[in-house]
Design brief:
Blueprint: E1 5-9, H1 24-31, E2 37-41, H2 48-61, E3 65-68, H3 75-81, E4 85-87, H4 92-101, H5 105-114, E5 119-122, H6 124-127, E6 156-158, H7 175-183, E7 191-194, E8 198-203, E9 206-211, E10 215-218, E11 225-227
Parallel strand pairs: 1-5, 2-3, 2-4, 4-5, 6-7
Antiparallel strand pairs: 1-8, 7-10, 8-9, 10-11
Length: about 240
């Protein structure tokens, strides 16, 4: 089995709470006592210094040191030496382009899939953990060399998944319709719609839905299905393509 350990969070901030407040207990139980320092990757936001300050404050309050990769003169070496990796939210296209520009795709994959260091993502950081960023909600403000992402799991995620508002007069496509359009293309993998407050814990070949809200699963050619926290999604880890 794979040594991978992932905590893929839909969102960094839940209404009524502070940064990572809704998932801080999950973070502590995920990182445990062995991890002393976390390598933070703030590439999804423009102001990396401010972003690193926010993340550092939170992780230090949980008992972990935090190093931001943008402060390192050698990002590849920083990944090679890291005990755990956290990639935060922001713009997914900006994030993925920076991962390619800094030659980090292969290095992060190796550390997570072969060496088994914990990987945590929220929002855009969750998007890039999957097969591709085709199902992000973000605008393509920059042009990464590929939409292929880290591929730590063999399916896609749509963070911040929104259900249609029955009272709304907005006539644009719903999130469900957009995911269905993605699945009209051949050989597209499953898409897990993670609502705000939901997260997926992956430990080796086991995947479990956690958090306070459910998720909606989209399989190509099938009707979407609803799932509550506690759902075993391990079957998604078997590469269907």
């Amino acid at each position: 089995g794979s040594p991978r350990r992932l905590l893929l969070v839909s969102n960094s901030t839940l209404h009524g709470g502070g940064y990572l407040g809704h998932c801080q207990q999950h973070i502590q139980s995920f990182l445990g006592q062995k991890v002393k320092r976390v390598l933070f990757i703030p590439y999804a936001l423009h102001d990396r210094d401010a972003y690193a300050r926010t993340a550092r404050e939170k992780f230090e309050s949980l008992g972990y040191g935090l190093d931001s990769i943008h402060e390192s003169c050698d990002p590849v070496e920083a990944v090679r030496k890291s005990e755990a990796i956290f990639i935060g939210g922001g713009n997914t296209f900006r994030l993925l382009k920076a991962l390619y520009d800094n030659c980090l795709i292969h290095e992060i994959r190796k550390r997570v899939l072969e060496d088994g260091i914990p990987y945590m993502g929220s929002s855009a950081g969750t998007n890039v953990a999957t097969v591709s960023i085709n199902t992000t909600n973000d605008m393509p403000i920059v042009y990464p060399p590929s939409l292929q992402a880290l591929g730590l799991v063999p399916f896609n995620i749509n963070p911040h998944y929104l259900d249609p508002d029955v009272k709304s007069t907005h006539m644009g496509e719903t999130r469900e319709e957009r995911i269905r359009q993605y699945h009209e293309e051949p050989n597209t993998p499953p898409v897990l719609g993670l609502r705000e407050g939901a997260m997926l814990l992956v430990e080796g070949d086991k995947a479990t839905l956690q958090g306070v809200t459910g998720a909606r699963l989209f399989l190509r050619g099938k009707k979407p299905t609803e799932h509550e926290p506690g759902t075993d999604f391990s079957f998604l880890l078997i590469d269907s393509n």
